Structure formats: C-alpha cells, structure tokens
Amino acid sequence: MFISTMDLAKIYKDDSVLIIDARSYKDYSKSHIPGAVSLDLFSFHWADTSEKGLISFGEHMRKILSYAGVDENKKIIFYDNTTGMLAARGVWMCLYFSHPDVQMLDGGLSNWTGENQPTETESTIYKPSRLTTTIDPSIIIGFEELNENIGKVTIIDARSPEEFDGTTPRAARGGHIPTAKNIDWNNNLDDSGKLKSDEELESLYQIDKETEIVTYCQGAYRAANSYLSLKKIGFKNIKVYLGSWGEWGNDLNLPIEK
C-alpha cells in the first residue's frame, strides 16, 4: 500500500498510473507532481453512518472518485505533504471500493521535492472514468454497530491526547468512546514524515494481531492512516469508524468516557 519516491519516479509518466494530490487546491496550485490531478479529500467529511448514510457515502464517493479518473484498470497513487492522513483516506476509500492496485507515496511531496524530483504548477485536466468495483463492507463501521460492540472490539482513538481526554472537545461533548485506547496517529510517522519501520510500529501497537480493531479520530482521516499502519504490520480485521468523533460526540444518545 506504500510506494517510495524512487519507485514512483520510474512510473509517474505512465498512462496506466493515476496520481492524485489529496491536499487543498491552494497547495496543489503552488507545486505538485507532474500529471497529478487535484482531489481535496478534506472537503468530504461524512457524519451520518446510519445504514442509509453509509449507502449514500458509497454512492457519493464512487461518483467523486470516478470523476477524478479512478477505475480498476489504473494503478492509483495518492499523496499529500507527508505519509499523511489525506492520502491515507484516499487509499482507504479505494480499498473500500475493492480497488486492486492503490498506494500512497511514502514521505509525500516533501520527500519527493527533497530528492529533487520534478514538480509543476499547471493543473492537470480530469479524465473522468467509471469505477465499477464492489464495496467491501468489512473495513467500515457505523455508529450503531460500534455501539453494540463496545467491549467486544479493540477501539483505537487516533486523535491527540487533549482530544481524547476532553480538554479539546471539537464536538458538543468532549471525551472518547468507552474502552478506547489513545494512540495518536502522529506516532505512526518518523521525523522525515515517512511511515515508521515495521519494528517501530509493532512496538507502538502491542495488540494481538487476531484482535478485531476499530480506528477513529475526528473525521476518519487520521484513523485511515492508523488503519494502513496496522495493515502494514499484519493486522487483518480492522474497520474505520467513518463518522468518528464528529458524529459520536454530537449524538447525546451515545455513551462517552473522559
């Protein structure tokens, strides 16, 4: 699920490769990898994970990814400034649509430019496609299913300690989902903005790899990064809580801890 700058440099001009810049268009317009299209994934928050809400999410995101040119016949590579949460969200969404070949650039644009790889400022025109793959419901969870399984699954809160303990609420209520463990997603990265080694990640996530895990944050971006980090070191049964604290913290009927 990760590609190095060296390996990307060999294929980024290939017509069968679609590179997606997941940062804001403002950042994209200043400098981006040649041929990359802009898709500001932070614009697409989703805070309704009821059964109907998840169906709508699938329909909505399929159209957006298709418009950006994503289909199952292309190799898809997402990037942002580092091995960050925006590119991770893109990879996770493509995995949700069972895409067979999707990766994120390890180290992001900062490492790409740090190695003197080429960039450009001219926007790449979209070439819309049609993503027809089936949805994989095994990697997503809504609030109803999660609420029913508190105590049965291991919940990882990828937010900051201040968000976790309620000091920084960012919703109607501060705190966290009951039983959640706080492992800040920033700990997944090294000082250069790349993903840490498998050994370092193993030390960070000292959990039985057969455990069923749910990751969440504020809007399921940082949680997507933690999802990919866990997948990289061999965890298989992981779901992202799409609504995250933006939904849970604003629903007064759902339980919380501080």
UniProtKB/TrEMBL annotation:
Source organism superkingdom: Archaea
SMART domains membership: RHOD (SM00450)
Domain Rhodanese per the UniProt entry, residue ranges: 13-121, 149-257
Keywords: Repeat, Transferase
Gene Ontology molecular function: thiosulfate-cyanide sulfurtransferase activity
A Pfam family annotated for this UniProt entry: Rhodanese
InterPro entries attached to this UniProt entry: Rhodanese-like_dom, Rhodanese-like_dom_sf, Thiosulfate_sulfurtransferase, Thiosulphate_STrfase_CS
Family annotation (PANTHER family): THIOSULFATE SULFURTRANSFERASE (PTHR43855)
Record protein name field: Rhodanese-like protein
Species: Candidatus Nitrosopelagicus brevis
